[in-house]
Structures are given as C-alpha cells and as structure tokens.
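Revision sheet: structure tokens.
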Amino acid sequence: MHCEPDMVCETKIVAAEDHEALPGAKKDALLAAAMWPPLPAAPPPAPQPQPQPQPRGGAGGAGGAGPPEGRGVHIREFRAAEQEAACRIFYDGIMERIPNTAFRGLRQHPRALLLCALLAGLCWALTGSLLLTCLVPAGLLALRYYYSRKVVLAYLDCALHTDMADIEQYYMKPPGSCFWVAVLDGNVVGIVAARAHEADNTVELLRMSVDSRFRGKGIAKALGRKVLEFAVVHNYSAVVLGTTAVKVAAHKLYESLGFRHMGCSDHYVLPGMTLSLAERLFFQVRYHRYRLQLREE
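Predicted:
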C-alpha cells in the first residue's frame, strides 16, 4: 500500500461570495483586525465575586480575552506528551465519516441512486417478488457501507503511519507548520494543524477535529481562527483546505471563518484506496476545496 502524506482528508467538505481579499500592505495587526472584529472586553468586576472568572487565552492567543465561542477552552501548541490524545481525537473523528459517507453521502451522487432504483425495478420485473425487490437496495447499501469502512480504515492506517505517527517531527519542527490542541479542564478536546506550501505562499488547514462530547461550544471555530492568525503573522497570501466531509455543519464552519468555496470533484482518491472496480462502484466521495485570500501577491 502506498501512502502519500501530502494527500490528506479532513475536517478534505460555500463561503460568502462577496468576501473581500485583504490588502497585503497592511500591518499584521490591522489585517487581523480586518478579518475578525475585536473580541469583547472582559466585563467589569461585579460587586460580588463571579463563580467562574472569565478564562484567558483561547483562539486569540495566550494572555488575551477569549472569544465568545470556545469560552473556557485554551488553544495552545501541541506537546509531545499529547500524541496519544491527539491521535485518539483524530481517529474518532475520521471513523464518523463511515456512516456519513455511506448513507448521507449517497444524496450527493444521483447516479448511484438511479442505479439502485433501476436494479430494484429490474428485480421486480423479473421476479414479481416484493421481498426480493426490497432486498436489492438493502444489499447495495450494505456493500456501500462495507467499502466505505474499508477505504476509511485504509486511509486511517496511512495517516497514523505518516504525519500523525510523529506530530512533533512532522508539524512542530518544520518552519511554517504548526499543530495546536484545544484544552478544557486539563484535557485535550480538539486538534488542528497548519502546513506551509512555499511554492504558492499558502498555508493549509488540516487535521481539524473536536471530541464529540465537546462539540457545539465553538471549539472548532476557535481552532480555525488560530490557523488564520498564524497565516497572518507569517505573511502567507492565503489559507487553503480540502475536505470530504458530508455534514453541512462542516461547510458552514468554513464559511463562518471567511473561506470561499473553490469547487469540488467526484474523482478524489483517498490515500490507501486500491481503485478496484468494487471500490469505484460502492465508494464515492466528493472532495471540496476552500480558500481564504489574505492578501494579493
């Protein structure tokens, strides 16, 4: 099996069409302010002490007031001791793709739905059996689930033996790359990475995932904003990402961060795929590309 670490699938799935590119001549502080409005200042102290004080840190960096989303969560750089926790969150997040791709993703592929209907109609015409006719789509869905699981597990095996096998070596040591964790009550609850592409002066957002028990708290958005701030500070011209996520929430997250949908493809090959006839018949995935322009080249 040949695994290419450069081919990644994330958190690899339309942003506002009137999103304006930010001028590169401005200073980093002005650029960051243009991208994200100033975070609200901490409220003045009440006459009585608050039960839980406003946490510091968050997506805006250490020492600043945390944003409304991700309140109480600290975003900081990855530490070697957190390798196992980061891999667990990544693994759990990718495993959720299996049923989403097999069943929800079917709506994105009308030709597969049409084929299923035609086979069911043919079975009814040949046998006249309602039971057999109902078994045809059920069997096709079962095959779709089987091959979705097969491909996703192969992809996970590749990822866990390439960049996710040594996060510190792959993301923390090379210049222009970084890996962050979201920490809540001392536990790692989310991850995200950034990797530089020097050829076009862009940085790629990838490996974003949040523990399912802590979703809906704005943690993913806080992680995404950390990557955008990293790109601004390091003078990258744009942030790019690719995703095969089926859930609408994933796309809305990218839109809320300012990303613009750049197109999609039904012919994306996940690392670990064998491209056998069965895989091509029963595993279809749509790959979406997003881009957030920071400044013109």
